Amino acid sequence: MRVIFMGNPEFAIPTLKALLTSHHHVVGVVSNPPKPMGRGRNLKSTAVGQFAKENNLNLLEPAILKSDGFNHQLSDLNPDVFVVVAYRILPKSLIELPRFGAINLHASLLPKYRGAGPIQWSLMNGDKKTGVTIFQIKPKVDTGDILMQKEMEIQTDDNMLSLGMRLCYTGAELISKSLDGLELNTLQLLPQNHLLATPAPKITKEMTIIDWSWSAEKIHNWIRGLSPRPGMSTTLKKESLRIYKTKVLDIGKNIPGEIIRLEESEIIVSTGKGSLSLMEVQLEGKRKMSVADFLRGSTIQSGDRLGI
């Protein structure tokens, strides 16, 4: 089939690579336009855009999806299907353009975790399993019929990056199988049960501030879900401290946020229930480092409080 691929971040690239090695023909790649980045404000393409340029793929970087010009560009490529991975919400006019419509890779077992943050929320909620879903795109976000799904275990040491990478490679395999099934008419589409739908809304800045009155387990799961980006943060002596890795301990019953013990490679902090051992942190203006490295140059001591 003639495929137009649409995506932005690194998460989307394994699927694009899988399509390029399949018997399907990628006739175009669509990604967001370059943005000014860094101190020099130099224009930088998305991860997918950069990959497309490096591999001499037919790259389209539209600012407006509803423009007639972009619609004509896509029509001229005569696509059979759009494959969408972590891109934008497509207008109805584009969804209906290819013969087989548009299919999407979503990093959850739909209808669970509809929305922008399915990987984050599965970890933040302490789930033991998740998966990927390939579904037919409809105008209402994440509601289309399911083509294929695959379940995956969440490992105890997973964070957003490690889980996300496993999901994207599994999803890439499933996309190729879904395209084969569409082409051969061997797939039986499964309507979603909308009564079972749960949301996975976009992460806001306010959500990244640690509330030490929460249980250690909940704080730990939120840190996993938001690591390495954007990361959960607190304050230490009025400076921002980002925390990337922790371990739950069933000890102590002190004031939430109080440092109750310092070890050679651990900062143990009391929470609303249980304690957390901080293992990887980043102080404002410094690099990310292990707690062992952090403590070598720090003046903190037991009794200090985080988050005040």
| Order of the strands making up the biggest sheet | 5-2-1-6-7-8-9
CATH class of the largest domain: Alpha Beta
CATH topology tier name of the largest domain = Rossmann fold
- Percent range of helical residues: 25-40%
Which spans of ≥5 residues are poorly predicted at pLDDT below 50?
A: none
Rounded mean pLDDT is 96
Count structural domains.
2
Q: Give the CATH H-level superfamily of the largest domain.
A: Formyl transferase, N-terminal domain
Rg is 22 Å
Polypeptide structure, described:
The protein is of the alpha/beta class and 308 residues long. The chain has two domains: 195 residues, Formyl transferase, N-terminal domain (Rossmann fold, 3-Layer(aba) Sandwich), CATH 3.40.50.170; 92 residues, Methionyl-tRNA Fmet Formyltransferase, Chain A, domain 2 (Roll). It is built from eight helices and 15 strands. The strands form three sheets. The protein has a seven-stranded mixed beta sheet. The longest helix has 25 residues. The protein starts with a strand and ends in a 12-residue tail after the last helix.
Q: What labels describe this entry?
A:
308 residues, alpha/beta, Rossmann fold, Methionyl-tRNA Fmet Formyltransferase, Chain A, domain 2, 2 domains, 7-stranded mixed β-sheet, 6-stranded antiparallel β-sheet, 15 strands, 25% helix
Q: Nutshell version of this structure?
A:
The chain has 308 residues and is an alpha/beta fold. It has helices at residues 13-20, 47-54, 68-76, 92-95, 118-124, 160-184, 216-225, 291-296; strands spanning 2-7, 25-30, 35-37, 42-44, 59-60, 81-85, 102-106, 129-136, 146-153, 232-236, 239-249, 259-262, 267-270, 275-283, 289-290. It has 2 domains: 2-196, Rossmann fold; 205-296, Formyl transferase, C-terminal domain (Methionyl-tRNA Fmet Formyltransferase, Chain A, domain 2).
